[in-house]
Amino acid sequence: MDAVTFEIDAQLKQTSYPIISLSVCDLRLVDDQRWPWLLIIPRVPHAVELIDLSPELRSTVWQEIDHVARIMRDQFSPHKLNIAALGNQVRQLHIHSIARFPEDAAWPNPVWGVGEPEPYDSILLNTRLGTLREGFA
């Protein structure tokens, strides 16, 4: 893995906040308070699909996805966790982990394309980031 030449896609950077760097992935909070929505971004230049990763690296990424999912389950007690790697709008490999609830704005449908994002205000953002960082401590 070449972390020196890795850069997070500009759109991902613009629409999310850094939480923590795991061993091979960066973890970011999507700026939409309607859902606890995290991005897991492997620090691998030019990776588009999970199959672009070596088997060993892919295994580590899956372990980190699992770790993120467990923390989200513990912190948010969702009805369902949605985990997906789409890449239709941003080609850079990234995995969405979204805590879903029957009362959320899109339930039971996918979150994509539903309404307009509701950005975090500074108080809720700092609270959410702090809580998430504590979960990974």
List keywords for this structure.
single chain, 137 residues, HIT family, subunit A, five-stranded antiparallel beta sheet, 31% helix, globular
Strand runs, count: 5
Task: Compute the CA-based radius of gyration.
Answer: 14 Å
Biggest sheet record: 5 strands, antiparallel
Total count of domains: 1
Report on the structure:
The chain is built from 3 helices and 5 strands. The chain has 137 residues and is α+β, with helices and mostly antiparallel strands. The chain has a 5-stranded antiparallel β-sheet with strand order 1-2-3-5-4. Helix 2 packs across helix 3. It starts with 9 loop residues before the first helix and ends with a helix. The model has no long low-confidence stretch (mean pLDDT 96).
Offer a concise description of the structure.
This protein is α+β, with helices and mostly antiparallel strands. 31% of the residues lie in helices and 21% in strands. It has one domain: HIT family, subunit A (2-Layer Sandwich), CATH 3.30.428.
Secondary structure: elements and pairs:
Blueprint: H1 10-14, E1 16-21, E2 25-30, E3 37-42, H2 55-76, E4 80-84, E5 95-100, H3 122-136
Antiparallel strand pairs: 1-2, 2-3, 3-5, 4-5
